[in-house]
Amino acid sequence: MESIRNFLKSWPGRIFLMLCLSPLVILGLESYFGGGSSVNEVAKVGEQSVSRMDYQNSINARRTELLERGVDASAINTNVLNKEVLTSLINRALLRNQSEQLGMHVSDGIINRILLQDPQYLDQDGQFSNERFAFALQQQGITKDQLFAEYRQQLNLMQLYASIAQTALYPEAEINDLLALQLETRNAWVYRLPWALFQDEVSVSKDEIETYYNEHKNELNSLAMVDLSYIKLDPSKLTISPVTEEEIQAQYDAYKARFVGNYTQRISQILITGDNAQETIKQLEQRLKAGEDFAALAKEYSADSVSAAKGGDIGTFNPDAFGADGTKVASAIENLTVGQVSAPIKTTYGYQLFKVTKMSGDEMPSLESLREQLTAQAERQKREELIADKITRINDMATDGVGIEDIAAQEEMTVHRLKDYTKVNNKTELRQPAVIEAAFDDFTIQDESVSPSIQINAGTIWVQPTNYRPVAPLTLAEATPQIKEIITKQKASELALVEAKRIAETVNNQDMSATTVTFSPLGIVNRQTPLLTATEKAMAFSQDTEEGKRLAVADITDTGASVLVLGKIKKGSMKDVPKAELAQVMFDMRDTRGQEQFSDYIEYLRVATPIKENEAVINEVGGL
Length: 624
Fold this sequence. Notes:
extended, 15 strands, alpha+beta, 4-stranded antiparallel β-sheet
């Protein structure tokens, strides 16, 4: 079975880990805690159900993740994404079934210990906050019992994974043998013979074409294709009106509203301690509001004798001076201007009032100094608004059934055309998956309508497919050019191999200098070298030779044939591998074997568990 390592690197693998192995992911809780009807059931997996909400939420979450990672929207193949998400959800359900059958259980005590350490539930003092916990439950729309059930389920899945994947053994001797192969090197030279050089020497008969057709007719099909018309909105080619003074002023006003500057605040304090500190500080607050002098009250009442002697002055505010209370004090004074006094706050020292006595920092830049920047920002904003308006208008017309020719005429755009636009093996400038998906959408094809806007790297496009031709078996006449090319390549490659073997024999009997061809020196290569194709790498380490004697080998390749001239294989020394690297390799290889075992286990569960997919609901959500 296919290695789980490749699976985990793929879209479904990452979604599987996200959904099955993370104890913090909570999706579609209603499917775990409430009954569901088939109308809302995407799949039934043994006794477990995959709900419509689970499926939709997971698709949305995966798509959002890809977009946030910078993946272009046009590069996301919705059908592939939906299928991989469904596979992951079914895998999760299989594991839920199995963990329940095995009687795996996680106690409330373990879950409590996890929650007590979760940063999202801790207050400013690092203590568990019931208020924060209750707020989080309210935001998620679940109860404590539901949260505990979800944590218990996730931890059960992790326990099941660990019991299978982390028990795999990979003997150290095998690891050493594999590493030794990777460390092998040898000198290499290559000469390649493209099959195209020999194609004029071969012929393909009618009988050969008919024989090939009869043997492969089930594989010889036409490509699904349409004739595609499209319009393209290039933002760089839109003309915007000149920026006015009013627009520049509006940008400047917005800049001023956002401007903070690098301000520092000089502050004074009144510190009150003792049994009646809270009452005393409130009385002082009222006296300050009545107009009494802060410095005078600080000298009379403040418990900090050092600052009291200076009218409460403690210099430029530094949150570090207040230790754990630094953030609290900063929050109390951050919006104060010179002369304003904070509300009383409780700190580890007692109850305190703060007054801002001086502020210094960057001054607000003038409009003129920012004119170039503000003008550019105004132009960008106008262009973005123009683009948004244009996209909205065109989308509205496409929804109303207006054809692409009429849209182009109204919006002063040019219609471009691509004849025989294919669904697979598309080599056109519009080969992005999102464009292909829109061009071959069932409803769009049926109505020959204009698609909604599609974002691609160069801008926004709309497509209208016509003259749809579905996949169909090729007749002998239709398949003849393709078959002729296949047989020509096979025969020409065989001729290339004959010549390659002749060259290799000359090298083995004499030397490279005895040939009439020029070999390309590759230097010292190993099994990972990017200078050789996969076939050539296999050739390069297939045979060894004597010290001081070169060996030539030849074989057929995807592009024709190749001749490799090779020196003696040099064995790598395990002593050259740093201990840390060796330990990491051993860990990775054992981890890979464990993941392979886990993949096999999931495949076993798939065979042993009845799985019924609800195609009607799947298609309603997004289809595969």
